[in-house]
Automatic annotation (TrEMBL):
Belongs to the group II decarboxylase family. Keywords: Decarboxylase, Lyase, Pyridoxal phosphate. InterPro entries: Aromatic_deC, PyrdxlP-dep_de-COase, PyrdxlP-dep_Trfase, PyrdxlP-dep_Trfase_major, PyrdxlP-dep_Trfase_small, Pyridoxal-P_BS. The modification N6-(pyridoxal phosphate)lysine is found at K311. It comes from Bradyrhizobium sacchari. This is Glutamate/tyrosine decarboxylase-like PLP-dependent enzyme. One of its GO terms (biological process) is amino acid metabolic process. Coiled coil: none annotated. One of its GO terms (molecular function) is pyridoxal phosphate binding. Its cofactor is pyridoxal 5'-phosphate.
């Protein structure tokens, strides 16, 4: 019997995935960390983004790795073929999409979380308490009641979907989770603006209600949802037998960063008995800035708020979040009894509401730790100042555009997003965006506003400064001149008198 035990123990030891030489591993690990830190510290020395050469794409294609490889060789492949060709949002010249720049602090926290390898689906352990602490901080920041609940998710796309599901369960009752949405569910209608993010429509699709059940309301002169038109559409739907159940307002629209009149929408929803959700993917964190927080007036009246810490919060990807005013309604939309999830009075299975009661995931990573590290290390005042600074830089870019006859501003600058164009046709402006991206100087993106293609600069990275704005403007002018042959029909810049 002892021989069997000895043989078994030997077999288990041989199959362990731990390093055989911890000293050698430690040396390589320190090198990896040093080079990762160097990559952030010296980020300006490399292109924002660069196209992936065909040879690099081909180099990583291989058969399933049946045999073991040396860790140093795997890391070498990463350093040569992966790291140089990343998205580029760590770089201060990245302004294409609303991507946060991350921080070295967040990177270390992610490493520590990986070392713990905690599953935050449930049970009684401190990682869940860290997540609960952040829920409490968010509850306080947005003036939600103590009974509010919150949960980390991949991003606002998932948070918006979950908000739709909570609102759907509230409208139809918990039996709809068992029997389906039925005839009543087929009559449910939701509302958002034409400028809302496409994930809202997708959430309606995935939830089973259908994207046609989402009414897209027109905009007012400030690119916000037209509240009068919203009221009229709700009344028209009720008149023909539909059941309005949800309004999704935007705190920072995807194209230009407009914030809906949240207070007016909240009052309408309360009057109509409709769930009021705010898609605050990046804009909701303006609450951290005393200068910008007044723009969010009314967000404290929401039934739920979706936001991303990985955008203006500068937490490394991914760290989305959903906050729900009524924690019990939140739980009713997702909690599911199961023997393997039973709660005990003591031991590891102790505890009341587990995160798996508040969302679809049973296996969940420790996203809260990098967020906790970020909030604790920098504090909300400094993070708020970073957010306000990005908006000030957007105003600086706006001024550069208005002062340059070859450029045209295409939309008001509400927060941190500037939409403009070189005074030429759409085809030229599309080429300008690609030219600048491929040059490595900066990384703007493009969008279409009122049928016109716009160069879109979303300033989110805490490393961005005026020199990066100047480099973007210079690149637009240089590539615009090349693409248009230098012939420009100059008009008086619009919005200059506003």
């Amino acid at each position: 019997m002892n021989e069997i035990v000895r043989n078994t123990q030997g077999s288990v030891t041989q199959t362990s995935l731990d390093p055989q030489d911890w000293t050698e591993f430690r040396v390589l690990a320190h090198r990896m960390l040093d080079e990762a830190i160097d990559g952030i510290a010296n980020v300006r020395s490399r292109p924002v983004w660069q196209p992936i050469p065909d040879g690099v794409r081909a180099a990583i294609k291989s058969d399933v790795p049946r045999e073991a490889s040396d860790l140093a060789d795997v890391y070498r492949e990463f350093a040569e073929h992966v790291a140089p060709y990343a998205t580029g949002n760590v770089h201060p010249g990245f302004m294409g999409w609303v991507h946060g720049g991350g921080t070295a602090v967040g990177m270390l926290a992610e490493m520590l979380a990986a070392g713990l390898n905690a599953n935050l689906g449930g049970r009684d352990h401190m990682p869940i308490e860290i997540e609960r602490q952040i829920v409490d901080w968010m509850r306080r920041l947005f003036a939600f009641p103590q009974s509010a609940s919150g949960i980390f998710v991949t991003g606002t796309s998932m948070a918006n979907l979950m908000a739709v599901l909570v609102a759907r369960t509230t409208a139809l009752g918990t039996l709809a989770r068992q029997y389906g949405i039925g005839n009543d569910g087929a009559l449910l209608t939701a509302y958002t603006s034409r400028a809302a993010h496409g994930c809202v429509s997708r959430a309606m699709d995935i939830s089973g209600l259908g994207s046609d059940a989402l009414r897209k309301i027109g905009l007012d002169a400030d690119h916000r949802i037209d509240v009068a038109a919203l009221r009229a559409q709700i009344a028209a739907d009720r008149k023909v037998g539909f059941k309005p159940f949800l309004v999704v307002a935007s705190a920072g629209t995807v194209d230009i960063g407009a914030i809906d009149d949240l207070r007016a929408v909240a009052e309408l929803c309360r009057e109509q008995g409709i769930w009021f959700h705010v898609d605050g993917a990046f804009g909701a964190l303006a609450i951290l800035s005393p200068e910008l927080a007044p723009l969010l007036g009314g967000i404290e009246l929401a039934d739920s708020i979706a936001l991303d810490f990985h955008k203006w919060g500068q937490v490394p990807y991914d760290a989305g979040f959903l906050l729900v005013r009524d924690g019990e309604r939140h739980r009713q939309a997702f909690a599911q009894p199961a023997a393997y999830l039973s709660r005990e009075a003591r031991g590891l299975a102790a505890g009341a509401v587990w995160p798996c009661d508040l969302g679809p995931d049973l296996s969940r990573g420790f996203r809260a730790l990098k967020t906790w590290f970020t909030l604790k290390t920098f504090g909300t005042e400094r993070l708020g100042a970073v957010i306000a600074r990005s908006c000030a830089l957007a105003k600086y870019l706006e001024a550069r555009v208005l002062a340059e006859p070859r450029l045209e501003l295409l939309a008001p600058v509400n927060l941190n997003i500037v939409c403009f164009r070189y005074r030429s046709n759409d085809a030229v402006n599309r080429e300008i965006v690609a030219d600048i991206q491929e040059s490595g100087i900066a990384a703007p993106s493009g969008t279409t506003l009122d049928g016109t293609f716009a160069i879109r600069a979303a300033i989110v990275n805490h490393r961005t400064d005026e020199t990066d704005i100047d480099a973007l403007v210079a690149a637009v002018l240089e590539f615009g001149g090349r693409r248009s042959g230098g012939v420009i029909d100059v008009e008086a810049p619009p919005l200059v008198a506003q």
